[in-house]
Amino acid sequence: MVEIGTREYTSEEFEQRKRMMACLGQVSLFKDTDITDKEDIIDVLQTKQFPKGQIIFNPGDNPDGVYLIESGEVVVELEQDGNFKELSRLKENDYFGEMSILSNRPRVGRVTVTSEPNANFFFLPEYDFEKFLATNLNVFREVVKVMTSRLAETSRLMPFQPH
Known about the structure:
Blueprint: E1 2-4, E2 7-9, H1 11-26, H2 35-44, E3 46-51, E4 55-57, E5 65-71, E6 73-80, E7 83-91, E8 95-96, H3 98-103, E9 109-113, E10 118-125, H4 126-135, H5 137-157
Antiparallel strand pairs: 1-2, 3-10, 4-9, 5-8, 5-10, 6-7, 6-9
């Protein structure tokens, strides 16, 4: 057992928390948050692993949380005229899934694992993400900055076409 403050962890739990802390220290969304906030986030993070080719979510899926990429790569695609078009590739220390949470709308893109043999993620559930944003103005600003950039890139790659 490893004791930190008033908490005790198995060596496996301790190693996982170290990995989570390292990831949070690199992900732009959380890298400037203080250690106490990072510890609070780690308390609610979940680990997920998906194999190459696995679709993590599709257009129309309801938002469930934010994915932090610990290792591996995904492709983000948008549907246009019945075909999917690559919007971006995200890799270690990137994140995705925040836009549909903040817009309170279903997912608009498809995210698929492209790395062999799999990709590893830390998953922050929607409720915990929103709670954290409500109390951390710097993180909220970072989300707005990234969302604005992603929306601009989407508009550039897929200009509006009235029907």
